[in-house]
Amino acid sequence: MAIFGAHVLVACIVACAGLLWLRSRSSSKEMRDIPGTMGWPVIGETFSFISDFSSPAGILSFMRDRQKRFGKVFKTYVLGRITVFMTGREAAKILLSGKDGVVSLNLFYTGKQVLGPTSLLTTNGEEHKKLRRLIGEPLSIDALKKHFDFINELAVQTLETWLGRRVLVLEEASSFTLKVIANMLVSLEPEGEEQEKFRANFKVISSSFASLPLKVPGTAFHRGLKARNRMYAMLDSVISRRREGGEVRGDFLQTLLRKHAGDDADKLTDAQLKDNILTLLVAGHDTTTAGLTWLVKFLGENPEVLEKLREEHLQIRERLNGTSHLGWSDVNNMPYTNKVMNETLRRATILPWFSRKAAQDFSIDGYDIKKGTSVNLDVVSIHHDPAVFADPGRFHPDRFDVSLVSGRQIS
Ligand SMILES: *[C@@H]1O[C@H](CO)[C@@H](O)[C@H](O)[C@H]1NC(C)=O
Ligand SMILES: *[C@@H]1O[C@H](CO)[C@@H](O)[C@H](O)[C@H]1NC(C)=O
């Protein structure tokens, strides 16, 4: 029975994929003019995409190869849909500014299901704009300043536990980042049982994103949805304590509740609050964790950079005389550190491509893009364009001096 079920399931998946592929082949007639190959039936170019993605060079080789053959705009068929990749200044402007509603966000089905229907990442148009405004305000620099001492102390504490011990940096960075974000959003204490439960649920949710969307017990997707429900139950009790006025904190949730207390149009429902707290957790955690981990790797590989970084920080310590704590103004006065961070983000390219969906027909570089197409900005090629960043494979923070002066950094 189980074997029979599995066969039926596989047959259904293959049939669905086949239909999708045929459908996209016919719609691709409209985009015949865009160069590129669709690869094998059903799977398209998914295998080379995934194998390049997991290789040390990352997605860059997939892009390079096709850009050489087809140019800056090309089409392919990966992960079950026809996909257009584009790179360069004009593409970045159109796809990232989203001006005139040319493109909308493009999230996979699993992501949509896990983050919920009212997340900033799953809404479009006017609703998206409203959420962005409401949610953006409490995330300003001023809000960050309020949390600075907490972040600084936690960083020092965390690094002290590293002394004389082998650590798994990714794990350390993840746990640190989650503590910071959960504290900023809902004042979760960095230690204790609540934090442990929160982290356990978060990990399950996180790993469900890249899973097949089968709502069947035992699958990563199913476990993710259940963990999401447990996390929402925790948030429900926090939100109701706040709404009843029994608890007042200086965090993101409090700002949202207070700010829109009297204004019906701007009031966020509990569902919206929860979906967007989870969205910020996921978005902030994954990117920051990756950034910190790459930073440590690059510093390990480049001792001369580490030495200069140490010098800058030893000087700050001297200036502080060993008495006073690091302050906000000190953070804004770390020129070398700033370059190291920028170079880390360039070299690692935490988000190698941005996925959008054409919300209307538009043209770019002389090619017509049809409404509904998945259009993607290939960022990794911009960050590794030798015309913009000389010797792009090298980790070289001082390049930011030169490029800032010549103004070639933005291209
Ligand atoms: C730093 O310490 C020295 C000696 O302890 C003291 O004379 C000086 O005033 C201190 N400076 C600051 C900025 O606290
Ligand atoms: C680092 O990047 C930020 C954001 O793009 C920019 O504002 C800043 O000037 C950069 N710093 C340096 C030293 O280039």
TrEMBL record:
<dbReference type="InterPro" id="IPR001128">
    <property type="entry name" value="Cyt_P450"/>
</dbReference>
<feature type="transmembrane region" description="Helical">
    <location>
        <begin position="6"/>
        <end position="22"/>
    </location>
</feature>
<dbReference type="GO" id="GO:0005506">
    <property type="term" value="F:iron ion binding"/>
</dbReference>
<dbReference type="Pfam" id="PF00067">
    <property type="entry name" value="p450"/>
</dbReference>
<keyword id="KW-0812">Transmembrane</keyword>
<keyword id="KW-1133">Transmembrane helix</keyword>
<dbReference type="GO" id="GO:0010268">
    <property type="term" value="P:brassinosteroid homeostasis"/>
</dbReference>
<dbReference type="GO" id="GO:0016125">
    <property type="term" value="P:sterol metabolic process"/>
</dbReference>
<dbReference type="GO" id="GO:0004497">
    <property type="term" value="F:monooxygenase activity"/>
</dbReference>
<dbReference type="InterPro" id="IPR002401">
    <property type="entry name" value="Cyt_P450_E_grp-I"/>
</dbReference>
<dbReference type="InterPro" id="IPR036396">
    <property type="entry name" value="Cyt_P450_sf"/>
</dbReference>
<keyword id="KW-0408">Iron</keyword>
<protein>
    <recommendedName>
        <fullName>Cytochrome P450</fullName>
    </recommendedName>
</protein>
<dbReference type="GO" id="GO:0020037">
    <property type="term" value="F:heme binding"/>
</dbReference>
<dbReference type="GO" id="GO:0016132">
    <property type="term" value="P:brassinosteroid biosynthetic process"/>
</dbReference>
<keyword id="KW-0479">Metal-binding</keyword>
<dbReference type="GO" id="GO:0016705">
    <property type="term" value="F:oxidoreductase activity, acting on paired donors, with incorporation or reduction of molecular oxygen"/>
</dbReference>
<keyword id="KW-0472">Membrane</keyword>
